[in-house]
Amino acid sequence: xxxxxxxxxxxxxxxxxxxxxxxxxxxxxxxxxxxxxxxxxxxxxxxxxxxxxxxxxxxxxxxxxxxxxxxxxxxxxxxxxxxxxxxxxxxxxxxxxxxxxxxxxxxxxxxxxxxxxxxxxxxxxxxxxxxxxxxxxxxxxxxxxxxxxxxxxxxxxxxxxxxxxxxxxxxxxxxxxxxxxxxxxxxxxxxxxxxxxxxxxxxxxxxxxxxxxxxxxxxxxxxx
Amino acid sequence: xxxxxxxxxxxxxxxxxxxxxxxxxxxxxxxxxxxxxxxxxxxxxxxxxxxxxxxxxxxxxxxxxxxxxxxxxxxxxxxxxxxxxxxxxxxxxxxxxxxxxxxxxxxxxxxxxxxxxxxxxxxxxxxxxxxxxxxxxxxxxxxxxxxxxxxxxxxxxxxxxxxxxxxxxxxxxxxxxxxxxxxxxxxxxxxxxxxxxxxxxxxxxxxxxxxxxxxxxxxxxxxxxxxxxxxxxxxxxxxxxxxxxxxxxxxxxxxxxxxxxxxxxxxxxxxxxxxxxxxxxxxxxxxxxxxxxxxxxxxxxxxxxxxxxxxxxxxxxxxxxxxxxxxxxxxxxxxxxxxxxxxxxxxxxxxxxxxxxxxxxxxxxxxxxxxxxxxxxxxxxxxxxxxxxxxxxxxxxxxxxxxxxxxxxxxxxxxxxxxxxxx
Lengths: 224, 423
Ligand SMILES: [Zn+2]
Ligand SMILES: [Zn+2]
Hints:
The complex is a heterodimer of chains A (224) and B (423). Chain A is mainly α and 224 residues long. Helices cover 41% and strands 0% of the residues of chain A. Among the domains of chain A are: 3-76, no CATH class; 182-224, no CATH class. Chain A has helices at 21-29, 31-37, 46-55, 69-77, 81-98, 134-145, 150-156, 159-168, 207-216. In chain A, helix 2 (31-37) packs across helix 3 (46-55) and helix 3 (46-55) packs antiparallel against helix 5 (81-98). The longest helix of chain A has 18 residues, at 81-98. Chain A is elongated, with a radius of gyration of 26 Å. Chain B has 423 residues and is α+β, with helices and mostly antiparallel strands. Chain B has 3 domains: 2-129 and 393-418, ATPase, nucleotide binding domain (Nucleotidyltransferase, domain 5, 2-Layer Sandwich); 134-201 and 305-381, ATPase, nucleotide binding domain (Nucleotidyltransferase, domain 5), CATH 3.30.420.40; 202-303, ATPase, substrate binding domain, subdomain 4 (Actin, Chain A, domain 4, Alpha-Beta Complex), CATH 3.90.640. Chain B has helices spanning 69-81, 107-120, 139-145, 150-153, 202-216, 224-234, 241-249, 278-283, 297-303, 319-327, 335-339, 354-365, 380-391, 395-400, 404-410, 412-419, and strands at residues 2-8, 12-17, 26-29, 32-34, 40-42, 56-58, 61-62, 65-66, 95-100, 125-129, 146-147, 169-175, 180-186, 189-190, 196-198, 260-263, 274-275, 291-294, 342-345, 374-375, 402-403. In chain B, strands 11, 12, 13, 14, 15, 19 and 20 form a 7-stranded mixed beta sheet that branches. A 6-stranded mixed beta sheet of chain B has the order 3-2-1-9-10-21, sandwiched between helices. In chain B, strand 9 (95-100), helix 2 (107-120) and strand 10 (125-129) form a beta-alpha-beta unit. Classes of the chains: A mainly alpha (224), B alpha+beta (423). One zinc ion binds at residues 197, 199-200, 202, 213, 218, 220-221 of chain A. Chain B: It is found in: Cytoplasm. Chain B: Pfam families: Actin. Chain B: Keywords: Cytoplasm.
């Protein structure tokens, strides 16, 4: 949802890149190629690299009639779903891995009834618990006994609410932001790192870190 | 008649009588806990166990949504009735409730809460809002915490503050356990179109720290409580990430302020672990305990708030981009006014350096002629509740609260229209 209005500060606005959608997506289209040629140029990762090799360099002659127009268009305009979703997918996986309170994510189930032992104040004598009747009562019991998960609830949402919760309220990262420069750090030692592992795309800064990486984290090293 | 305020955070509940001071606010774990030997504990009973290893949490609020009233009710009952907490609140006896609820709560869940509040607990009236929504009403205190302070900014920003008034333009940054919310407010009302969510909260930062420590030092994958303690004691936001990195890599330089030694629990002399300060070090040497030396881990995890891409999460914008996105939804004329009134609340804001770093970064990306001011209260975790307490004294509150009679007369959908988001 970029608009002209957003370039309110000419000082930080890169004059060389004109804000038209075509130029922005073109620079994206180059990414799979350049990532293969120069491992340091693009932030990639295991799956992105694997998949992008199919959409990148290798141009095959296709038999007449076998052209997939939308695929070609995607390639030209950089909306190739393989590249985009691969990065999003692996980012989502990575996020879920880190955004867990219990690492092993074993959700323990509660027994049917539990009573916690603790000392209580005696209930006041004037206490009158209101009586709820009819449908409201049934609903209230349902609410208080429900063991439905968040996923259950999300499934039931109408499309409008869903798109608000899952999309509208989040800010998409700008790819080539003129505002915030993206950081590129070594996945082993955390130092700034211009280069990435040729096997999997994770960033490594030095021979030393690269060796540690190969022995521990590299998803593709032994596979190669 | 008395008013109860519950800031129902997904990590902790902050609860107390509106009329009582800040010091009487009680903080409770909003969870059920299972110990390694499979005992179930409720809320603050967590503090009674010696072995924090392998403890697991079950929370009624998942990803900011109050999913389980089954669990939440057990915790609220504990909050109201237990002598551990010490509040002794009879919800059925003439009580008004001010309750916080995450922005963009799923409508059905929001209505479920209303029903429980009125029909299960019998509260007399309810007012519900994201906790950030109370901040403008604490204008008097907000003015005291802004950096740069009003005096140093000069005349333009100086405004006479009267009791009971609110700031017309306010940007609240609520960085909690589940997420970081950017909430613009105009004339005391949330500007919903501009409310933005950054999925990075305390839980994520702990996850990053857990991974780093496990990869480099000891396996702490099963040590949720310990990781949380280490994070609280040692993490800070670096004012210049590259400089901090250099400082750590440099040999023999003065990196005292960047390196920390954390004594791990041995379940004998310490159950939670602690930071080995130079003073402590002089007094005695820990003998059998293991010591964890932390370097860049201390500021790498917090850095993900600004740069999620450093942990290979490329599909999320950092906090600065998210704030800019939020500001850009506002009419142009309002933008400079709102960035002059930023207040940071929520547990993550306890991290040293957060406000200064954010101020620096915003000054870089915003026009130079805009005056950016950020206020960070001395206790960002309870400040929202404190603001709600100020709000409870206003006439506005009397106008917007919904009584049980209203609820019965107009029904849950009508109530939800009053409290829910609207785009
Ligand atoms: Zn390295
Ligand atoms: Zn690799």
